[in-house]
Design a protein that fits this description.
Blueprint (H helix, E strand, L loop, with lengths): L2 E5 L5 H13 L2 E4 H4 L9 E9 L2 E2 L2 H5 L7 E8 L6 H10 L8 E6 L1 E2 L6 H18 L4 H6 L3 E2 L7 H9 L1
Parallel strand pairs: 1-2, 1-3, 3-5, 5-6
Antiparallel strand pairs: 3-4, 7-8
């Protein structure tokens, strides 16, 4: 089975997972924009790797428009929330309202890198921190999670996806 991982990464966490997955499962890995012009006919499984931004999986709609009939479709999404967080489950459901049966979705905790963000994202995050601080206080889990840069990536989070690929 040939598998292609198309990744969309802004600060590097999703790219790191995509590259790790390529090494662990023998997948071809390339940036999403390059993959959009690649002949997908030779692949049995297409994995789209991207990240959450304000609850939306970035470039997911462009991935959904790709002609992937007859192929396994997997979405690997990264974010700042820990695994199993209710907010993550809700965001995933919102991104796949009418077509969730077509995709197998895996969530992996990434991180936050203020150093690699653009000015617009930094301003948005500053406003979001103020809202969270006012609503929940500085001791809230959410406020602590978005107050500084961090990296929660780990190869161990990929194991369920690797197991799933092996079962296909």
């Amino acid at each position: 089975m040939k598998t292609l991982v198309l990744y969309n990464s802004k600060t590097g966490f999703t790219k790191r997972y995509a590259e790790w997955l390529g090494d662990m499962a023998g997948c071809t890995v390339m940036p999403f924009d390059k993959g959009r012009t690649t002949d997908l006919a030779t692949y049995d499984t297409i994995i789209f790797a991207s990240w959450f931004h304000a609850g939306t999986i970035q470039k997911l709609n462009a991935f959904k428009k790709m002609k992937l009939d007859g192929r396994n479709r997997i979405v690997m999404v990264t974010g700042t929330a820990p695994p199993g967080a209710a907010e993550t489950d809700t965001a995933i459901q919102n991104n796949f309202k009418n077509d969730d049966e077509k995709y197998k979705v895996f969530y992996l905790p990434g991180g936050l890198s203020y150093e690699k963000m653009g000015i617009g994202d930094k301003i948005m995050m500053a406003a979001f921190r103020k809202i969270i601080k006012k609503a929940n206080g500085e001791d809230s889990e959410m406020y602590k999670r978005i107050s500084h840069s961090y990296d929660n990536t780990s190869k161990e989070y990929l194991q369920p996806l690797v197991n799933y690929l092996n079962s296909l």
